[in-house]
Amino acid sequence: MNDFKKEPNGSNAVGHAMMVDRRQLLMGAATGVAALGVASTLGMRSARAADRTEISFASANFFGKERLGDLVKAFNESQDRILVKFIELPPPSSSTEVYQGLVQQLARKNGTPDVFTQDVVWIAGFAAAGWALPLDEYFPKDKRKDYFPGTVAACTYNEKLTALPWFVDSGMFYYRKDLVDKHGGKVPETWQDMATMAASAQKAGDVKFGYLWQGKQAEVLICDAVEIITSNGGSILAPDGKSAMIGEKPAIEAIQFLYDTINTTKISPQNVLSWDEEPSRQPFTAGDGMFMRNWSYVYPIAQDPKASQVVDKVAVAPLPHFAGGKSAACLGGYQLGVNANTKKREAAIEFLTWMSSPETQTRLALNLGLAPSRPAIFDDPKLKAEQPFMASLQSVFTGATPRPITPEYAKVSLALQSSISKALVSGNVKAELEAAAAQVNKIVA
């Protein structure tokens, strides 16, 4: 039965439970039992199924060559102790509805769902509410070394592991190979070198826009800000998540650089201030941009002759950094959690472990296009053969940086979106970011 039904408050968080296909449990049954006929066979099947520990798994639905429900079915067929029932939520593109559905159910504290997936920015909030089971005893620090450090950091709240890495995405640096070859031959590693090369290509008339990014007052603006601030050695929040650093020099310099791309170096169009992912992607795949910050979804579009004018001319590298800094990519992706109120903890942990295993993550990568959170999988020969672009992203994901880790993330994000947007429009970067710091301090204090 689906517990993610429409709530009285009119939420649109509607999911529907997919009936999990139960495998045939009678292989090897005694000849005498088989002779009892169909009725007895069905009775035995029901009894065997009833002997299994039943747990529920709620997730946004991902699909490619197969669906997430197929993965759940594979787990059910891999053993005879646990039966997982899949509660299918809307896709990640409807993340608000997914979030509302999870909140409504977890807040009931009745143990359903036993296991769930969550956008990386929800982890701290679910943990602070007491809805996510701490996982430290099941996944000690030596096991966490198998995952990208940034993903583990995002799965940790108050020094406790409250989610398990599943799959990742991050911001990345797209560039035109032909134009880089013409204007220097080497992919720029610093923001300053990128701006110089982009301006050179523009001046030569080889490209209309030097650098495309996302400045719309939306969540993606925070992603862009996290990347460029971190690449200058700065941060939005202090490591403990209880004070703001957005008003400090590294952050001010980084946001000033973004402002300057529009108003000083003029390598970015004024329109970036109203662009999120797709509006910034379109001129790039139309052949009008030299460099672009975006997510992994862009690459297959860039290689599609029906949608792109730059087929075979595009490559990806880690995002640039400031002199003395390191490349940083904003972490995205969904991670796994266990309901703190589950009544079937051991079964939930077993399923969680299977879902995050190297074998399952490899299957997710090959069949659903979801990038592994385990670096070692990127060396898998089959992944390199079937998903060469994904296999090339290990260096990008290694620098993945989580957005501010705080249970008040939603409030912090809205405050930052407003302040950073004002800074980019007005040019009063220092004043706006210092004001943002004061506002954020009130939220997280």
Set out the fold topology.
Blueprint: E1 16-18, H1 31-34, H2 38-51, E2 53-60, H3 68-78, E3 82-89, H4 95-106, E4 115-119, H5 123-128, H6 141-144, H7 149-154, E5 156-157, E6 160-161, E7 167-170, E8 172-176, H8 177-182, H9 191-203, E9 209-212, H10 219-230, H11 249-263, H12 277-285, E10 289-294, H13 298-302, E11 314-317, E12 329-332, E13 334-338, H14 345-355, H15 358-368, E14 371-372, H16 381-386, H17 388-391, H18 394-398, E15 400-401, H19 409-426, H20 429-444
Parallel strand pairs: 2-3, 2-4, 9-10, 12-15
Antiparallel strand pairs: 1-3, 4-13, 5-6, 7-12, 7-14, 8-10, 8-11
Helix pairs in contact: 10-11, 10-19, 11-19, 19-20
What would you say this structure looks like, in words?
The protein has helices at residues 31-34, 38-51, 68-78, 95-106, 123-128, 141-144, 149-154, 177-182, 191-203, 219-230, 249-263, 277-285, 298-302, 345-355, 358-368, 381-386, 388-391, 394-398, 409-426, 429-444, and strands at 16-18, 53-60, 82-89, 115-119, 156-157, 160-161, 167-170, 172-176, 209-212, 289-294, 314-317, 329-332, 334-338, 371-372, 400-401. It contains 20 helices and 15 strands. The strands form 4 sheets. The protein has a 5-stranded mixed β-sheet. It has a 4-stranded mixed β-sheet with strand order 14-7-12-15. α10 packs across α19. It starts with 15 loop residues before the first strand and ends with a helix. The relative contact order is 0.15. The model is unreliable at 1-47 (pLDDT under 50). The protein is an alpha/beta fold. The protein folds into 2 domains: 16-166 and 333-401, D-Maltodextrin-Binding Protein, domain 2 (3-Layer(aba) Sandwich), CATH 3.40.190.10; 170-330 and 408-444, D-Maltodextrin-Binding Protein, domain 2, CATH 3.40.190. Helices cover 42% and strands 14% of the residues. Keywords: Periplasm, Signal, Transport. It comes from Rhizobium oryziradicis. It holds the Pfam family SBP_bac_1. Belongs to the bacterial solute-binding protein 1 family. It is found in: Periplasm.
